[in-house]
Design brief:
The chain has 253 residues and is an alpha+beta fold. 28% of the residues lie in helices and 23% in strands.
């Protein structure tokens, strides 16, 4: 079962400092965001970004897209910088050949793993000190029958077919899809991995091969999930909700 924490919002509390002295396997920060992004002042976020990120932001013309990008990238940098005790702009965030962002730490410094996802109205960041992680959040839309037939395991298709109507199938599909996406992100493969081989069910948590996954609840109008590589026995993720407007109060150190 996912733990929804009421700890003071900080990078260290989010990632387990002070949580029984051992920390969780995965910590998640869910950000509610909406129309306020279109009028958000991005100037305080710019010094937190790397040079390549600032160049990408400069090339964007849509206010909503600019705000989503700046907020997401600065969020990653501030959380990881707070965990490691390093200035956010100094962090070296690279991208693998499969398109997965990762933190490239200096020699001798411990690794911190992260995964970021966003959809209409939500951002989700997952962080772990122990193993690669994957996170996915998706707004519930119409039932994509063709996508389901292409990417779902036969057992998953049978479960979807047994649901009473297309509305229930749409909800069920995104419950499955977010878990499958989180699993392949933890593998670092994305949709290049054959999703039909990632077999999941409707439970609150489970395993698919060497991946442990959990569903995250409380996302209005959306479904979300997180996964991590490694053996069983990992504690459930800690989840914290925050509004985009409140991120200014986040204690990054």
């Amino acid at each position: 079962m996912t733990t929804v924490t009421a700890l003071p919002l900080s990078a260290r509390s989010l990632c387990g400092e002070g949580v029984g002295g051992r920390g969780p396997g995965v910590a998640c920060l869910a950000v509610r965001c909406g129309a306020e992004l279109e009028t958000m002042d991005l100037r305080p976020l710019l010094p937190l970004l790397g040079a390549e990120e600032r160049a990408r932001l400069e090339a964007m013309t849509t206010p909503q897209r600019r705000a989503e990008f700046a907020l997401a990238r600065s969020l990653v940098r501030r959380v990881l910088g707070g965990v490691l005790g390093r200035p956010p702009p100094e962090l070296r965030i690279r991208v693998t050949s499969r398109g997965k962002p990762y933190l490239d730490p200096p020699a001798g410094e411990r690794r911190v793993f992260f995964s970021l996802s966003h959809t209409d109205g939500w951002m989700l960041l997952a962080v772990s000190r122990h193993a690669p992680v994957g996170a996915d959040v998706e707004r519930i839309a119409e039932y994509p029958a063709r996508i389901a037939r292409r990417f779902c395991h036969p057992d998953e298709l049978a479960w979807l077919a047994a649901l009473p109507d297309d509305a229930a199938r749409a909800d069920g599909f995104y419950r499955l899809w977010t878990v499958k996406e989180a699993c392949v992100k933890a593998l670092g493969m994305g949709i290049a991995h054959p999703l039909r081989t990632v077999r999941v069910d409707d439970g609150p948590a489970g395993r698919s091969g060497g991946i442990r996954w959990w569903r995250l609840e409380g996302f209005d109008g959306a479904h979300a999930a997180v996964a991590r590589l490694g053996p069983g026995g990992a504690p459930p993720p800690i989840l914290r909700f925050v509004d985009a407007d409140d991120l200014a109060s986040f204690e990054w150190r």
